[in-house]
Amino acid sequence: MSATPHGLAANHAAHPHTRFHVVLTSVIAALAGLLFGLDIGVISGALPFIAKQFHVGDQMQEWIVSSMMVGAAFGALGSGWMAKAIGRKPSLMIGAALFAGASALCSFAWSPEVLIGGRVLLGIAVGIASFTAPLYLSEIAPRTMRGALISLHQLMVTVGILAAFLSNTAFSGSGDWRWMLGVIAFPAVALLIGLLFLPRSPRWLMSKGRNEEAEKVLDRLRGDRKSVETEMREIADQLKVEFQGWGLFRSNSNFRRSVWLGVMLQVMQQLTGINVVMYYAPRIFGLAGYGSAHDQLWGTVIVGVVNVASTFIAIGLVDRWGRKPILYTGFSVMALALATLGAMLHVGITGGTSQIIAVAMLLIFIAGFAMSAGPMIWILCAEIQPIKGRDFGIAASTFVNWVANTIAGATFLTLLNTLGHAQTFWLYAVMNAAFILLTIWLVPETKGVSLEQIERKLMAGEPLRRIGQ
Ligand code: BGC
């Protein structure tokens, strides 16, 4: 153990064995992100075939798409309560089981209404997973690896999206939407089995007075006595706060600040415009002059690959550069790429070279997101909440992630039609530029700082941008 300038124990996972244990545990928990990603990616490919089989129009199709996000918003909200009452691990298990069951229901759906019902259930499962996995990861990770380990969750989200894009492309020949929607049950079952082997969150155990069990888990995850003792002391101190969750929100203005910060961060993430590309990539390739379904499907797969590959940049940099420099870089890249794409649409995309540049801008935008706001926002949201309000705070920000996701997805086509193509991309460019300012002004740098220290500064009333380092 080494002492930091703040006099706190540094939680290095000292022994290779301990490090392996932490990473393995985190990988399994992060697999929950796979479900999240599979679900975001799967519907764009399946929808045309579903529409054909059930003879449904635009409005019913919108319902089929958005029912999942509505379910996810409520799943996230409810899982705050569940993760507190029964614990993080059982919550993840319920999410995985529900996901498997709901995928099966969707694939056997005999009417559009049953499909919508199945997608609401699927959404609830995704909401549970998208809330609980980053929370659990932040609670078991040693702080020197926390950023990278929470990024694993985002990596799995991107792998899930790519896997869904690939499976869409594979099944598109036969048009078998039932298989497209059904195969995603298999990874959910695998996750359920993996989860059986995970330890419970030591912080949750202590919040239930089960200190001996918490100590055993920490012994395994930290591997050195002194770190374990320090961490347990710090958690115990924080648990002395009288109110929890909603009560804390009502009674404590400092906690309200961290909740609003989490909500703002998730709104920022969604208003970068990422899901506009995820849901409408084929359409955007169409705007860039790629008309054939074949080109558009493969273009979508390339988007998925760039999304996964660029997430590794974030994993490599997050605990070295810190969260804020990465966010500045990402928002700048995204703003520039979208502004250029808008300008090209304004002038008109004609001929091979301009088509290639337009697609390059789209991919640069994706890379900018995946190396920054994708993982960083989830990391920050899991880090900034005090322990007694962590479930409530993260549930609120995750809920808003899904609400903002739905709004961005549902307004894109309308924006294109009312504002115009170029103007829509410029609007998103301006928002990305504005997020640089918001980051400077309100976002803390949490690199290498213990969750306990972040909490102390938040509760002492320090300005938000200073509750980290
Ligand atoms: C976002 C999702 C998005 C995904 C793309 C996640 O961080 O929350 O809305 O679809 O990244 O990789």
User: What's the overall geometry?
Assistant: globular
- SSE string: HHHHHHHHHHHHHHHHHHHHH
Number of helical regions:
21
Instruction: Count up the domains.
Output: 1
State the low-pLDDT regions, or none.
1-13
Spatial extent as radius of gyration: 22 Å
CATH fold-type name: Growth Hormone, Chain: A
Q: What summary fits the major beta sheet? A: none
CATH superfamily: MFS general substrate transporter like domains
Strand proportion: under 5%
Determine the mean pLDDT: 88
Q: How many DSSP E strands?
A: 0
CATH architecture: Up-down Bundle
Helix content: over 70%
Structural class: mainly alpha
N/C terminus separation: 20 Å
What is the gist of this entry?
The chain is an all-alpha fold.
Structure description:
The two termini are 20 Å apart. With 469 residues, the chain is mainly α. The chain contains 21 helices and no strands. The chain has a single domain, classed as Growth Hormone, Chain: A (Up-down Bundle). The longest helix is centred in the first third of the chain and has 29 residues. Bound molecules: beta-D-glucopyranose. The site of beta-D-glucopyranose has 14 residues, from helix 6, helix 14, helix 18 and helix 19.
Key features of this structure:
469 residues; mainly alpha; Growth Hormone, Chain: A; 0% strand; disordered N terminus; binds beta-D-glucopyranose
Secondary structure layout:
Layout: H1 16-30, H2 32-54, H3 58-85, H4 88-107, H5 112-140, H6 146-172, H7 177-182, H8 185-195, H9 202-207, H10 211-222, H11 225-238, H12 245-251, H13 253-271, H14 274-287, H15 293-321, H16 323-347, H17 351-370, H18 373-383, H19 390-418, H20 421-442, H21 451-459
Helix pairs in contact: 1-5, 1-6, 2-3, 2-5, 2-6, 3-4, 3-5, 3-19, 4-5, 4-8, 5-6, 5-19, 6-15, 6-18, 10-11, 12-13, 13-18, 13-19, 14-15, 15-16, 15-17, 16-17, 16-20, 19-20
The protein binds beta-D-glucopyranose (BGC).
Residues 40, 154, 157-158, 161, 269, 274-275, 278, 307, 374, 378, 401, 405 line the site of beta-D-glucopyranose.
